[in-house]
Amino acid sequence: MMGAERKSARVRSPQKKRGAMTWEDYVVSDVWVDCDPGIDDAVMLAALSGAVERGRVRLHGLSSVAGNMPLDVTTANLLALASYWALPHVPVARGANRPLVRAACDAAHVHGANGLGEVEIPAGDRALANDSAVLAMHKAICSLAPARRMRLVATGPLANIALLLRAFPDDAARIQDVVIMGGSTCGGNVTPRAEYNIWADPEAAHMVFASGVPVVMCGLDVTLRSGLSAEQLTSMRDGDSERLCALARMLSFYKGDPAAWPHGVCVVHDAVPLLYVLAPDLFQGVCGVVEIGLGQDDRGETRLVAAGDGADAGVAKASGNATPSNALVLSLVDALGFQKVLGNLLQAVR
């Protein structure tokens, strides 16, 4: 990271309407969600249900990937959660069962044996799509009207996105951005400098960052400050919504882990990319060049080697720098605003 050159600047979204703004005033996005449920994925999917209910996103599909848990578990959890949160009947596709190159890994010690903090939810009524995640994403992208672009929200390792861009390179022109939970410029949670999702499949991350598709990196810099307050969790647990109570019980699995409460909130890493799509003015960041460590000693590190002065989401150049930018790296979050918007979305889940 070039410390002298790095500046935080307000992320200005090109999606704004005129006049006074709230998070509900942004143009509705076409979204595909790729995830590895996971407790915090469960929070993200609940918030996604609220966003769909309020007409804030057009959801085109969901896909699973191995990450927090093995693929069989993340796929079963995704199907169950899609039904539990009453998400639209969009394709739910099974994705990559392992990293592109590395051995498979998981984070069962964080999420519990079933990936959902040992909370059992009904299997539900959803069935897997016949198509693989890659083919299902491709078909969804091709189905968009010519003027529309897909936003890929990825909250696990990036194997599915990398394989999509390799198999269907022309799809890159129809993707507005890939908004990921992953990476860090402030220290890691697997090694001193690597965050888990990137560390789990660094080759996939390298392919995505090098693809030319704009990447929005929602890394530990912002996710460790983005969460739900103890008061919100108590309200969810003691309220009249059985489903929100179940979500609060999932999050209580983090109770004994100080890393889950670093700034007085229960962090929900995987909700951050969705809230960036819905309410980008909650965040500040810089456009720059992010390199992915692929070696034995730097595996999964996300190095911000050139940074501009911040810019609109999707800008392809770092300001004042001839080096093409490959990412918008979020660096600051309005933590109270995040709690308010996320709480608002979850209240739509009854």
What's the quick description here?
The chain has 350 residues and is of the alpha/beta class. The chain has helices at 39-53, 71-84, 108-111, 133-143, 159-167, 196-200, 202-209, 220-223, 230-238, 242-252, 271-278, 335-346, and strands at residues 9-10, 29-35, 57-64, 92-93, 150-154, 175-181, 215-218, 227-228, 266-267, 283-292, 302-307, 327-333. The longest helix is centred in the first third of the chain and has 15 residues, at 39-53.
Radius of gyration: 18 Å
Report the sheet with the most strands, covering strand number, pairing sense and barrel closure. Answer: 10 strands, mixed
Q: Which band does the percent of strand residues land in?
A: 15-25%
CATH architecture: Alpha-Beta Complex
| Count of the domains | 1
Element string (H = helix, E = strand): EEHEHEHHEHEHHEHEHHEHEEEH
Poorly predicted spans: 1-19, 310-322
Globally, the shape reads globular
User: How many distinct beta strands?
Assistant: 12
* CATH class membership: Alpha Beta
- Between the first and last Cα atoms, what is the distance in angstroms? 44 Å
Helix segment count? Answer: 12
Give average pLDDT, whole number.
89
**Which fold name fills CATH's third level, the topology?**
Inosine-uridine Nucleoside N-ribohydrolase, Chain A
Category from helices, strands and their pairing:
alpha/beta
Q: Helicity, in percent?
A: 25-40%
Q: What would you give as the CATH superfamily?
A: Ribonucleoside hydrolase-like
Pfam family, one: IU_nuc_hydro
InterPro entries: Inosine/uridine_hydrolase_dom (IPR001910), IUNH (IPR023186), Ribo_hydro-like (IPR036452)
Protein name: Nucleoside hydrolase
GO molecular function: purine nucleosidase activity
